[in-house]
Specification:
With 469 residues, this protein is mainly beta. It contains four helices and 37 strands. The relative contact order is 0.08. The strands form 14 sheets. Strands 3, 10, 11, 12, 13, 14 and 17 form a seven-stranded antiparallel sheet that branches. It is rod-shaped, with a radius of gyration of 55 Å.
Length: 469
């Protein structure tokens, strides 16, 4: 093991760029750091071999040919639930996923395709001692790549705090001795980006091996960070003069000029993929959503139409997000309209005017007392329309009526003749009483006259005895 480690370090020393210490200073936001010599920086465990000229590019605003990830069976995970099967390296300090749209002009709040930006600005590697962009891949299936694969494992485990990681594919990109457009010829920078994945998780190291130049030499700005489908990260030194002295600032690794980033990991739940209140269960290499009632789908994104199962027994179903509502028919209640309403117990729908109420499924029936009708027995019947009073006048009342009979007529319906000859015997002086409907008549003896035979004939004046006028 000791021999392997020493061989690894020696290999790193041989393959990395060594220049004399320039002993320049950069003033950061609050503290000044002295940049380390290139020899010291090259010995750090973060520094990887830069590769050979056979895999390099030079020139202004160009991108490498497509670099295929692994053996083509896998893509490199980026962000959340997204992979890319090939990448491009840009001369302008970018690693591009799925496209080669290199641009020399960094954009704040970048929203374009997925991209890493170790040092996105107008760089011009012109070839030879004027700089190259080297790129080299390492595959765990290749026995000659094992030392670099092990080195990547160490870097991830050291910085991420996870308990296991076994790199399957590594990409090392080095912008070596590259000039920034408009800078003096002797102002060069060297940056290295290491991209490591096990095809489930992806990590990156941004190593500013020699970035310590005077920001007043150019008007260009520098963007540092990355963009995925779930996150856009911008280093705190982006678009500031600090970016021209990145070697002098302590990165999140604790080392000057070295930053470590999680580009994609197997903690998919942290991206909150489960929608509509679903809960996320983490699984190695994936996740599972436990959906809230009323939703389905991988991410609980689909609303279940509960109305398709006709849950409303006696009503109309209206679907809603994650649920449904039953509009009950008259006479039913309950969540599923399966409870009959006893209308006879309701003060609103009960029978009126002493009617009897009989409950039925979904309805009720009122048996009205005489004189009333209608569903609730609240409508008065006008009995007079049937002309019930035979010899009298009908007067309607609430729920009933009464008859005002003519003289000589009796009974509730004025249909009973009063026999005056029996009840009163109105004929006097031995007159004979004859009953008639509603009245009577008297048949008088010869000596009497008048309606009731009350006048004696002998006492009546003869016509010629009446006084003259």
């Amino acid at each position: 093991m000791y021999f392997l480690y020493c061989s690894l370090i020696l290999g790193v020393f041989r393959s990395c760029v060594c220049v004399l210490d320039t002993k320049r200073y950069v003033y950061g936001p609050s503290k000044m750091y002295k940049s380390q010599s290139s020899f010291v920086r090259d010995s750090l465990h973060y520094t990887y071999p830069r590769g050979s000229l056979s895999n390099s590019i030079s020139g202004d605003d160009i991108a490498s040919p497509a670099i295929h990830v692994g053996n083509g069976a896998h893509g490199i995970p980026i962000g959340y639930n997204k992979t890319h099967t090939y990448v491009f390296v840009s001369s302008n300090g970018q690693i591009l996923f799925g496209n080669n749209n290199s641009s020399p002009h960094p954009i704040k709040n970048y929203t374009g395709p997925d991209m890493l930006a170790p040092y996105w600005t107008d760089l011009n590697p012109r070839g030879g001692n004027n700089g190259y962009v080297f790129y080299k891949t390492y595959d765990a299936s290749n026995q000659f790549d094992q030392s670099i694969i092990s080195k990547a494992d160490y870097d991830v485990l050291y910085n991420s705090g996870i308990s296991h990681f076994s790199a399957k594919w590594v990409l090392v990109v080095t912008w070596w001795n590259t000039e920034v457009v408009d800078f003096p010829d002797d102002d060069r920078i060297t940056i290295q980006c290491v991209l490591m994945t096990d095809f489930i998780t992806t990590y990156a190291v941004f190593n500013y091996m020699n970035v310590d130049v005077d920001p007043t030499h150019t008007t260009h700005k520098v963007a540092i960070g990355y963009k995925t489908n779930v996150r856009t990260l911008s280093n705190s030194h982006s678009f500031k003069d600090d970016a021209f002295g990145m070697s002098n600032f302590r990165g999140n690794t604790g080392e000057h000029g070295v930053w470590f980033y999680v580009i994609a990991d197997d903690n998919d739940c942290k991206w909150k993929p489960c929608q509509n209140g679903g809960s996320c269960v983490e699984k190695y290499g994936g996740y599972q959503c436990s959906c809230f009632t009323g939703f389905t789908g991988i991410n609980c994104e689909n609303d279940i139409n509960e109305c398709l199962d006709s849950p409303c027994s006696n009503g109309t179903c209206v679907n809603s997000p994650g649920s449904y509502i039953c509009g009950c028919n008259l006479g039913f209640t309950g969540e599923h309209c399966d409870q009959d309403i006893n209308e006879c117990n309701s003060t609103i729908m009960s029978c009126k005017n002493n009617a009897s109420c009989y409950n039925d499924i979904g309805s009720f029936k009122c048996t009205c007392t005489p004189g009333w009708n209608g569903t609730f027995c609240d409508q008065d019947i006008n009995e007079c329309e049937e002309k019930p009073c035979l010899y009298g006048t009908c007067v309607n009342t609430a729920g009933s009526y009464h008859c005002n009979c003519r003289a000589g007529i009796g009974g509730q319906l004025c249909d009973e003749d009063i026999n005056e000859c029996v009840d009163a015997y109105p004929c006097e002086n031995n007159g004979t009483c004859v009953n008639t409907i509603g009245t009577f008549r008297c048949t008088c003896t010869l000596d009497y006259v008048g309606l009731t035979c009350s006048y004696e004939n002998s006492k009546l004046l003869a016509p010629d005895e009446f006084p003259s006028s």
